[in-house]
């Protein structure tokens, strides 16, 4: 086998990289081909064996109960378990209570270190507190917090009691938080007096207070006093201080974890789809637990000595699966950073890696490209020798960024380019540390996962040609439903009958490597954040000057994709001067920020008199995009004039 520095020639247009000897020797999975084949030949045997590595209160009666009529996969039916028990108590009982669970680095450099025992203690105290507030299994709790230990504690406490958490990214606007809560109907909202980013204060509580008005299901708001430990909460509207609730329950002792079965939800996470309304993706405890446990273990080759750093925010699925649940299930020391990668300077993350001797670094293509712009002097100014594995997620990573990431971290580390989705809950197409790599390819399916590239009718397309990415068999961390919207769940399985359709396109090369291309639906990934064009359009048309709007994604050298909006103005709203035009554009951008949040602001706004539409009145974004990018327009026979 060649060494890490010697690419194997002849592999399509990219070199093939092999893992360093040390990685190969220690990898949990040494022989991918064999393990994969076995997992596909006997999926129940495979997943069943993995599930026994975790603790169950009652054993399952079968591994999978699949209903092809409703596309419902019940994993480990008959069994009960609890993900917080497996992420906390299990380790403490085995004598790892003093192991560090969380290292937190705040926006302005504050540090907190929390052991597994301490984390369990906080979680149990919060459970007692939530119990005293009358919360019961199945109740929803919305969590609108910055990435802080309290966010993790809140998620785990909900999981322990069987409450369904719905974490809302703290960068979202009042309207975005409100619409998610209107759907989830939580009994409790957990937020903070403030968040911080680039040294600036973010008034989370103000946003939360405004968003909760009119949502009658909410009885209490729990306020983390992140900025001011003496901040006066408004008791008259049901606000309570998070720290006081924990303090009050200091001596209450353990809180028994609720037994959670195959149908019991762990969380709802809202994500963008092709309509204006985000979908509440529901995950259940047992299957999600097994899927995130194993993928974290095998993809990152977790060992007890690891310090694992994932740059996501728990407000997104990556944070749920690969900051909180997967790593803690594996008894990992997790480094969690609040704030921006380039504040106070572009060395922020590299400095953290050096300081905490990080071994596994899970980042994003946009962050890598941002670091590329700042230049090699930032990573090279730090001792990164502790690193042994890298990861990437959220969007395709271009080979140039892949090579840069590898080169600035010593030129020998394997990069796990993990393809997956909010819906899949866990990694689906991903390298393992011991498998060969092609820059820009997520390589091959994870064991137990059956992927294919097909056409619209579900027929496999030949290798080398692009097609639609489908999953052909159920997998443990699959989502259970779309909250209150079973039809939308069904659509995932009926668009290409009998298979789960991801919305992505890709091609598989002659060596079986998958090359992800991007979404083929009206979902855009801007800096790895998932946005629906329809959501942004409905925010645009709610501006008083806007009559109609269409949004497309354009290739962007930093963010992967950027947003361009085409806008038809209402009669009489047309600006007369350049100055008026520029101030109107600013105002529209600001309006979208207020409606959805900063991540959804269009990068470009073009005022137009015409939008391409079908005869039935649907905007043909495809045509707009082709014109914008100078590409062939494809079939325009349905175009109106
Ligand atoms: C985990 C996450 C899912 C969409 C997915 C795809 C894109 C994610 C990728 C990737 C290429 C990768 N995506 N990882 N594309 N290579 N390694 O991002 O979930 O926010 O639901 O987005 O992200 O387009 O369909 P989510």
TrEMBL record:
- Give a GO biological-process term: acetyl-CoA biosynthetic process from acetate
Give any GO molecular function from the UniProt entry: acetate-CoA ligase activity
| Domain Acetyl-coenzyme A synthetase N-terminal span(s) in chain numbering | 32-87
Q: InterPro entries from the entry? A: Ac_CoA_lig, ACAS_N, AMP-bd_C, AMP-bd_C_sf, AMP-binding_CS, AMP-dep_synth/lig_dom, ANL_N_sf
UniProt KW Acetylation keyword: yes
Annotated ranges, domain AMP-binding enzyme C-terminal: 535-618
What's its EC?
Answer: 6.2.1.1
AMP-dependent synthetase/ligase domain: residues covered: 91-475
One of its Pfam families is AMP-binding
The UniProt keywords, alphabetically, are: Acetylation, ATP-binding, Ligase, Nucleotide-binding
Q: Which domain of life is it from?
A: Bacteria
- Family to which this protein belongs: Belongs to the ATP-dependent AMP-binding enzyme family.
Q: What is this protein called?
A: Acetate--CoA ligase
């Amino acid at each position: 086998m060649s060494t890490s520095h010697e690419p194997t020639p002849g592999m399509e247009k990219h070199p093939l990289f092999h893992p360093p000897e040390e990685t190969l020797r220690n990898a949990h999975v040494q022989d991918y081909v064999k393990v994969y084949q076995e997992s596909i030949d006997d999926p129940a045997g495979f997943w069943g064996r993995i599930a026994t590595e975790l603790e169950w209160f009652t054993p399952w009666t079968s591994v999978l109960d699949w209903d092809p009529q409703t596309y419902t996969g019940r994993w480990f039916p008959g069994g009960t378990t609890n993900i917080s028990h497996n992420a906390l108590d299990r380790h403490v009982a085995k004598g790892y209570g003093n192991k560090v669970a969380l290292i937190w680095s705040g926006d302005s450099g504050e540090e907190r270190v929390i052991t597994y025992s301490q984390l369990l203690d906080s979680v149990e105290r919060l459970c007692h507190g939530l119990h005293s507030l009358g919360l019961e299994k199945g109740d929803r709790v919305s969590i609108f917090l910055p990435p802080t230990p309290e966010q993790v504690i809140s998620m785990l406490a909900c999981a322990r009691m069987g409450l369904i958490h719905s974490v809302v990214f703290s960068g979202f606007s009042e309207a975005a938080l409100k619409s998610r809560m209107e759907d989830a109907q939580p009994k409790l909202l957990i937020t903070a007096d403030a968040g911080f980013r680039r040294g600036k204060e973010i008034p989370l509580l103000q946003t939360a207070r405004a968003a909760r008005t009119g949502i009658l299901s909410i009885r209490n708001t729990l306020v983390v006093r992140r900025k001011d430990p003496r901040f006066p909460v408004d008791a008259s509207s049901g606000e309570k201080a998070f720290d006081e609730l924990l303090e009050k329950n200091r001596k209450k002792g353990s809180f028994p974890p609720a037994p959670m079965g195959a149908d019991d939800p762990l969380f709802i996470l809202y994500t963008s789809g092709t309509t204006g309304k985000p979908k509440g993706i529901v995950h259940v405890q047992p299957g999600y637990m097994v899927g995130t446990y194993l993928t974290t273990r095998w993809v990152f080759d977790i060992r007890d000595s690891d310090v694992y750093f994932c740059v996501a925010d728990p407000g997104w699925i990556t944070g749920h699966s690969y900051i909180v649940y997967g790593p803690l299930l594996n008894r990992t020391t997790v480094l969690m950073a609040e704030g921006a990668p380039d504040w106070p300077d572009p060395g922020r993350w590299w400095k953290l890696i050096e300081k905490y001797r990080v071994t596994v670094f899970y980042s994003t293509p946009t962050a890598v490209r941002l670091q590329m712009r700042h230049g090699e002097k930032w990573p090279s100014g730090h001792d990164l020798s502790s690193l042994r594995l890298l990861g990437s997620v959220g969007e395709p990573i271009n080979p140039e960024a892949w090579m840069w990431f590898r080169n600035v971290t010593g030129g020998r580390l394997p990069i796990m380019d993990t393809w997956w989705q909010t819906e899949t809950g866990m990694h689906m197409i991903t390298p393992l540390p011991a498998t060969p790599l092609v820059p820009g390819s997520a390589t091959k399916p994870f064991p137990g996962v059956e992927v294919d590239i097909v056409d619209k009718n579900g027929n496999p397309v030949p290798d080398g040609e692009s097609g639609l990415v489908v999953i052909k068999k159920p997998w443990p961390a699959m989502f259970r439903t779309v909250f209150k919207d079973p039809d939308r769940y069904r659509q995932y399985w009926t668009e290409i009958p009998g298979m789960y359709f991801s919305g992505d396109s890709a091609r598989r090369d002659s060596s079986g490597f998958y090359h992800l291309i991007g979404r083929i639906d009206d979902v855009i990934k801007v800096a790895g954040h998932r946005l629906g064009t329809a959501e942004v359009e409905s925010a645009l048309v709610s501006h008083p000057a806007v009559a109609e709007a269409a949004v497309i994604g354009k290739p962007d050298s930093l963010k992967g994709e950027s947003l361009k909006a085409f806008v038809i103005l209402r009669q009489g709203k047309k600006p007369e001067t350049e100055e008026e035009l520029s101030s109107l554009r600013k105002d529209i951008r600001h309006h979208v920020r207020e409606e959805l949040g900063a991540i959804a602001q269009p990068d470009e706004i073009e005022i137009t008199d015409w939008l391409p539409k079908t005869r039935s009145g649907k905007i043909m974004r495809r045509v707009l995009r082709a014109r914008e990018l100078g590409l062939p327009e494809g079939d325009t026979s349905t175009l109106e004039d």
